[in-house]
């Protein structure tokens, strides 16, 4: 498993198309629906199956580890799902309309590549958070209000995802050093690898990744997020873990 290869940065925060940053009225609950929750669960399941494919197949034939499969599901919950929900919640707090959507071709590619490679290669892009003011009227906002600073909003919303990854990476690193069981050590290793890999990849200043939007607005702020993630990734490579 090589989480650093997971190109999961299709958050498309650029879909804030400049027409409105809406009033700060809380509408988090109204912006969740059964379809979106189902989409999140599907994306989580597909990505988790992909990164634990070899162990999952082994479990079916009695040779794999259930602990590794569970650790993989926990890692993707933090590294991908909470990354995406971080974008969603901060976007809502700043007045935008935000929904998680599945990417059908991403789901197909994720499952096809991992299956054809026998788990040796992983591509993961099952879905992303899309942000727009276009449905503002439906939620009772004034869609005509002008943005405070759409580029600033874009930077902050984009930075939340890698920020979540950095926070969990540090947490899992600490757990790795204090874990008293093989199971906890496995969770820590999976969580560390996925969060460092995903966060490092997303901080590359290449569109449409989060890093491109953050570096465009503030290089010092971007480096403050990128350097710790890239440093941890380099250390994992040096130690032969990533």
Attribute tags:
242 residues; mainly alpha; 8 helices; 2 strands; 60% helix; disordered N terminus
Question: What topology emerges from the helices and strands here?
Answer:
Blueprint lengths: L33 H18 L1 H8 L5 H28 L3 E6 L1 H13 L10 E6 L17 H29 L3 H21 L7 H8 L1 H20 L4
Antiparallel strand pairs: 1-2
Poorly predicted runs are 1-27, 134-143
Q: How does the major sheet shape up?
A: 2 strands, antiparallel
**How many helices?**
8
In which range does the helix fraction lie?
A: 55-70%
Calculate the terminal CA-CA distance, rounded to whole Å. 9 Å
Number of β-strand runs: 2
Listing every helix as H and every strand as E from the N terminus to the C terminus, the arrangement reads: HHHEHEHHHH
Order of strands side by side in the largest beta sheet?
Answer: 1-2
General form: globular
Notes on the structure:
This protein has eight helices and two strands. The chain is globular and about 55 Å long. The N terminus is likely disordered. The protein has one domain. The longest helix has 29 residues. It is mainly alpha-helical and 242 residues long. Helix 1 crosses helix 3.
In short:
With 242 residues, this protein is mainly α. The chain has one domain. It has eight helices and two strands, in the order αααβαβαααα.
């Amino acid at each position: 498993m090589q989480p650093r290869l997971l190109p999961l940065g299709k958050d498309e925060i650029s879909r804030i198309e400049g027409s409105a940053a809406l009033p700060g009225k809380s509408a988090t609950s109204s912006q969740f629906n059964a379809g979106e929750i189902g989409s999140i669960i599907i994306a989580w399941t597909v990505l988790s199956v992909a990164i634990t494919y070899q162990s999952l197949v082994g479990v079916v034939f009695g040779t794999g580890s259930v602990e590794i499969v569970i650790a993989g599901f926990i890692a993707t919950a933090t590294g991908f799902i909470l990354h995406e929900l971080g974008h969603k919640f901060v976007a809502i707090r700043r007045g935008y309309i935000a929904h998680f959507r599945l990417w059908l071709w991403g789901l197909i590619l994720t499952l096809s590549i991992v299956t054809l490679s026998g788990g040796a290669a992983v591509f993961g892009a099952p879905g992303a958070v899309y942000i727009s003011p276009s449905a503002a009227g439906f939620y009772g906002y004034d869609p005509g209000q002008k943005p405070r600073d759409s580029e600033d909003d874009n930077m902050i919303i984009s930075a939340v995802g890698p920020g979540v990854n950095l926070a969990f990476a540090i947490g899992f690193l600490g757990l790795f050093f204090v874990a008293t069981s093989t199971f906890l050590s496995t969770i820590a290793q999976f969580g560390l690898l996925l969060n460092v890999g995903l966060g490092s990849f997303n901080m590359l200043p290449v569109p449409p990744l989060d890093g491109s939007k953050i570096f465009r607005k503030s290089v010092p702020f971007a480096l403050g997020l990128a350097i710790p993630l890239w440093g941890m990734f380099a250390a994992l490579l040096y130690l032969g873990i990533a």
